[in-house]
Amino acid sequence: MAIINENYLKLQGNYLFAEIARRVNKYKEENPDANIIRLGIGDVTRPLVPAIIKAMHEAVDEMGKAETFRGYGPEQGYSFLISKIIDNDYKARGISLDEDEVFVSDGAKSDTGNIQEIFGLDNLIAVTDPVYPVYVDSNVMAGRTGVIDSSGRFGKITYLPCTAENSFVPELPKNRVDMIYLCFPNNPTGMTLSKEQLKKWVDYARENKSIILYDSAYEAFIKEDNVPHSIYEIEGAKEVAIEFRSFSKTAGFTGTRCAYTVVPKEVVAYTKNGEEHQLNKLWNRRQTTKFNGVPYVIQRAAEAVYTEEGQKQIKETIDYYMTNASIIREGLKSIGLQVFGGVNAPYIWLKTPKGLSSWEFFDKLLNEVNIVGTPGVGFGPSGEGYFRLTAFGSRENTEEAVERIKTRLEI
Amino acid sequence: MAIINENYLKLQGNYLFAEIARRVNKYKEENPDANIIRLGIGDVTRPLVPAIIKAMHEAVDEMGKAETFRGYGPEQGYSFLISKIIDNDYKARGISLDEDEVFVSDGAKSDTGNIQEIFGLDNLIAVTDPVYPVYVDSNVMAGRTGVIDSSGRFGKITYLPCTAENSFVPELPKNRVDMIYLCFPNNPTGMTLSKEQLKKWVDYARENKSIILYDSAYEAFIKEDNVPHSIYEIEGAKEVAIEFRSFSKTAGFTGTRCAYTVVPKEVVAYTKNGEEHQLNKLWNRRQTTKFNGVPYVIQRAAEAVYTEEGQKQIKETIDYYMTNASIIREGLKSIGLQVFGGVNAPYIWLKTPKGLSSWEFFDKLLNEVNIVGTPGVGFGPSGEGYFRLTAFGSRENTEEAVERIKTRLEI
Predict the structure, then answer these.
(1) Which of A47, A135, B86, B197 has the smallest CB count inside 10 Å?
(2) Which amino acid positions bind pyridoxal 5'-phosphate, per UniProt (chains A, B) (predicted)?
(3) B72 marked as part of a ligand binding site
(4) Residues of chain B with C-beta less than 8 angstroms from the C-beta of A123
C-alpha cells in the first residue's frame, strides 16, 4: 500500500490569495461598475526590454538551424551566462567566485524551495516573521517543523519578529538554530539591513556552524549606500552563506524564468559525526540529478541583461517601479500613515491606522476606494496590523490609487 | 551545527559518462587523427521545426510589448497548452482528462525526480534493471533505499531484471512493493510492453494499492500496433498510475525544456492509518510551492507541436531518427549481432558478442572502429553484457558507423 508524505497534511491551505480573490469578486458582484486598482500584486507589468527581445530572437533562430541547434546544456547553466553573472554582479563588488560556484536555475522559488533537500531533517530552522511562505512550506513538507499552533507558528521553527518596534531588524536567536533564512531587501516589508547588521548574522553563523540561506532577489532595487547587495560583501560570509538571486524582478523575468544560486566551495555542513562536507558538491549532485538546466533561449535572454544596452534599459524599468514606490510612500506619509520600505525595494509596508487588523484594513481599502492590497498577516503572525502595497502597477494606476487614498479614505 | 542530508553519501558517483569521456579522451590523445563517431549520446541533434520557431518568435514579440507581456503564469501551465495536450495525446486515444490533471513542467527528469517527495519514506520501490538512474538516485537522496551492496544494488529496492532471457518483460515482484517505476518504450533497452503485459502491472497495482510511475517519454517513437502510448489505455490505470511525458525527444526540446505529468484525480495513496488522499492535490501543492511554471515563450513553442504543420514537421524528424535506428539495427543484425529495440524507440540495445563485458565491448568499439556507445552495465547490474547505441546522430555518421562495424569490427 502506497503511503503519502504525511507532512503535507501539516501545511496550511494557500488561503491568502484565494481569500483576497473571494472578497474582491464578491465586491465586484455587488458593485459591477467599481474601477478596482490592484496594488497587491507581486508581479511585474513592464515588458522585456529591447536588448533581451533581440537576444531571444537570435537564439530562437539558432535553434532552428542544425549547425547552431543546442540540445542538453550543462545542468548548472552555460558558461557564457555564468561568466557574466560573476563579472557584473560579484567581481564588480570585489567578490571573486569560480564558475562552478554559480548554478543557473528556473527561479529563486525553485531554489529556495529545493535547497533544504541537501540538509538533514534534524536541523532547526529560523525565519523572519513576516516571511516569504516558500521557506516555511518547503520545510514543513520535508518534516523539519513540527505542527502549527493556534498562533500560526510551527513548533520547531524559530520565528524572528520584524516589526516597527525593532525597525524590522531581526534579533539573533537565543536558542540554537542551524539553517537561517534571510531575505534582504525584504519581501514583504521592503526593509533592508546595513552591512553592520548583516555582519552580526554572519558572525553568529560562523560561531554556531549554522548556514545562512540569503535571498537577495530584490538587490537591484537598492538605492542607498551601506546596504549590501550580496551577503558576500560581509567578511567570512563565503564560509556560511548560500545566496539566491533572480532575474524575475531585476529584468522582468517572472514569466520568462531564470535565476541563480551561489554556493561557494568554502561553505560546509557536517555529518552527525562531525565530518565536513562541501555544500557545493551536494547542491551540484542535487541539480544534476533532478534538473536539466534552463532553456538555451532563456539563458541568452539573461545574458543580454548584462550588455551595455541591457543594463541601461533594465535600469529604466527599475527606475519606473521605484518612482511608483516613491509616489505611494510619499502619498501615504502625507496623510499621516506610518510607512516602511519603498526606498530600496518595490514593496511598501504600512502600519494599519487606528489599530485595524490587516483584514479590516483590506476591506476598508476595497470598500472605500476600490484598491486591493495584501494583508500583512498573510505573511506571518508578526505581519498582523500591517499591509503591503507594491510598486509594480502602471504609473497611471499608481497615481490614481494614491490620489484616492489621499482624498477619499477615511482615516 | 548544520547537518547535511547523509543519504547523499550513499549515492554512487556519476562515473558512467565521466568514465566514457576519460577513455575517449585518452584514445584521442594517443590517436589524434582518429575520426570518432558518437552513437552513445541520448541527445537529439535535429533543429526545432519551423512551426515551433515561428511560434517562439511570435511569443518573444508579445513579451516585448506592454499590452501582451506575460508575468507569472499558472504554476501548472497555461490552459492553451494543456487543452491541446489533452485533445491530441489523450482524447484522440479515447482517454478523457480534466485540465487540472495535467501539470506542465520543465522536464520529465525534474518530474520523475521530484514525484517521490509526495510519498512517505517507508514505501518500498521497484525499478526495472537496467534503468534510467534518476528514479533510483532521487529515492536514495530521500532515504528510501538503504545502502548499495557489492553487486551495485540498494538493499531496499526491488530490482526487476529485463534481459534477453525474459524478452525484456519484467516479472511481477514476489515481495510487496508500493511504488513501481516503469518506462516504456524503455530507456535504455528500446523495448516495449504490449497492452496485455502492461495490464498485469495495472492489475497488480490495483490489488496491492501500489502506485505506478509510468515514464512514456518515448511514446512518439512507437510504430507498432498493440503497444500502448499511454498507460491510461489500460482499464483501471487511472486509479493507480501517474504518467510522465516530454517534448524533449518528441519535438527536439532537450535544450528547450518542456514536459508534462498527468495525475488523475482518481489516483489515491494513504496515510499510515489508511486514510485516502488524492495524489493530484499533493502534487499540485508540491508544484505550486516549489515551482513557478514554464516560460511563456516555451509553452507557446510546445503548443505549436500540436498544429497541423507542427505535427507534420515533427513526424519528419522522428522518421529521420527511426530510419537511423533501422540502419543500425539491420546493419548489426546482418553481421550476426543480437540486437533489441530500435523498432518503437530510438535506442538499440545489443548483446555483446563472445561474452564480452559491457566495458570490454566499449573499448573494442572505440579502438577498432572509433565508435563511442554506452556500456549497458552503466544502467544497472542486469545491463552487464549489453551495449546501447542511439539513433540521434546524423544520417551520414550513422551510415558511416554501421559501415565500419560491418566491415572492420572483428567479432
Answers:
(1) B197
(2) 72, 108-109, 132, 187, 218, 246-248, 257, 292
(3) yes
(4) 2-3
Q: What is the percentage of chain A residues whose pLDDT exceeds 70?
A: 100
Task: Report if residue B4 sits inside a domain.
Answer: no
- Closest to A164 measured CA to CA, from A406, A390, A387, A405: A387
Please, which residues 260-289 of chain A have a Cβ atom closer than 8 Å to chain B? 269-272, 277, 279, 282, 285-286, 288-289
Q: Is residue A321 part of a domain?
A: yes
Helix (H, G, I), strand (E, B) or coil at B373: coil
> Is there a single domain that holds both residue B196 and residue B245?
yes
Per-residue pLDDT of chain B (411 residues; tens, 9 = 90+): 999 999 999 998 777 888 999 999 999 999 999 999 999 878 999 999 999 999 999 999 999 999 999 999 999 999 999 999 999 999 999 999 999 999 999 999 999 999 999 999 999 999 999 999 999 999 999 999 999 999 999 999 999 999 999 999 999 999 999 999 999 999 999 999 999 999 999 999 999 999 999 999 999 999 999 999 999 999 999 999 999 999 999 999 999 999 999 999 999 999 999 999 999 999 999 999 999 999 999 999 999 999 999 999 999 999 999 999 999 999 999 999 999 999 999 999 999 999 999 999 999 999 999 999 999 999 999 999 999 999 999 999 999 999 999 999 998
SS3 content of chain A, % helix, strand, coil (to 5): 45, 15, 40
Spell out which residues of chain B touch residue A65, defining contact as CB-CB under 8 Å.
47
User: 152-171 in A: which are within 8 Å (CB) of B?
Assistant: none
Shortest CA gap A263–chain B (Å): 14
Question: For testing the chain B interface, which of A257, A280, A288 should be mutated: the one with the most B CBs within 10 Å?
Answer: A257
Residue B224 neighbours by CB distance under 10 Å? 9
pLDDT bracket for residue A15 (50, 70, 90): confident
Residue B319 dihedral angles phi and psi, to the nearest 5° = -60, -40
Instruction: Say whether B306 counts as a known binding-site residue.
Output: no
Q: Are residues A182 and A65 in the same domain?
A: yes
End-to-end CA distance of chain B: 59
Domain boundary among A282, A306, A330: A306
Distance from CA of B70 to the nearest CA of A (A): 6
Nearest-by-Cβ selection for B4 from A43, A118, A141: A118
Phi-psi region of B410 (alpha: psi -120 to 50; beta: other; left: phi over 0): beta
User: How close does chain B come to A60, measured CA to CA in Å?
Assistant: 6
Contact between chains at B256 and A296 (C-beta distance less than 8 A): yes
pLDDT band at A94 (very low <50, low <70, confident <90, very high): very high
Distance between CA atoms of A389 and A383, rounded to whole angstroms? 13
**Does residue B74 sit at the A interface (CB-CB below 8 Å)?**
no
Distance CA B328, CA B348 (A): 8
Of A8, A14, A255, which has the smallest distance from its Cβ to B282's Cβ? A8
Asked whether the beta carbons of residue B270 and residue A63 sit closer than 8 angstroms, the reply is no
Residue B156 and residue B24 share a domain: no
**Backbone phi, then psi, for A167, in 5-degree steps?**
55, 30
Calculate the alpha carbon distances from A394 to A40, A161, A321, A324, B155 in Å: 13, 32, 8, 8, 59
Strand pairing category for B347-351 and B338-341 = antiparallel
Q: Do B4 and A282 touch (CB under 8 A)?
A: yes
Q: How far does A7 lie from chain B, in Å, by closest CA?
A: 9
A71/B44 CB distance under 8 A: yes
Would you say the C-alpha torsion B131, B133, B135, B137 has a positive or negative sign? positive
In angstroms, the separation between the Cα of residue B353 and the nearest Cα of chain A is 32
ipTM reported for the complex, 2 dp: 0.97
Identify the helix (H) or strand (E) that includes residue B374: strand B374-375
CATH number at residue A393: 3.90.1150.10
Range of the domain at A183: 52-306
Q: What is the mean predicted confidence (pLDDT) over A28-47?
A: 94
